[in-house]
Amino acid sequence: MRTLAKDDNAVSLSIGFILTFSITILVLVTILSSFYTLMDQAEQKVMRDEFEIHGNDIAVKITTIDTIAGAAMRSGSDIGELRYELSLPDKIAGKQYLIEFSNTTNDIIFSSEERDETRVKIPYSTDGTTLLSTTLYSSTGEYQIIYNPDANTIEIS
Questions:
Q1: What are phi and psi of 60, to 5 degrees?
Q2: Confidence band (pLDDT; 50, 70, 90) for 57?
Q3: Predicted TM-score of the model (pTM)
Q4: Domain boundaries in the chain?
């Protein structure tokens, strides 16, 4: 008959199982953490790329309105109201975003979730008109870029 007090066989098996299980869990957590980090980086890159595309489109429209208004004024023509329809998606990469128009820095600033990783600045240029500073939220989706000839301003609403 064996005495259990002096039997060391079970101890090494239990310790081996616990160590193997712990190492497996650590490796699994590390792999999942890396996967989520890569997914987050890919999402941020998609957001920045989409923000740059939409921002450049808006900057071109602002510059076009400024050019048309400037050419008309230099030729002595009267200008009525100029208007562009601006359609933007409600969400980019599954997230809502906001667009700030700054007439002090001449930048269009896209951001989402107030994260620096997703913040994009796109410069725009106007010669004789002033773009009114404003902030747009993506939940609206449909906007207008309007030139007001009386005040010589461009407003986005």
A1: -65, -40
A2: very high
A3: 0.77
A4: 10-156
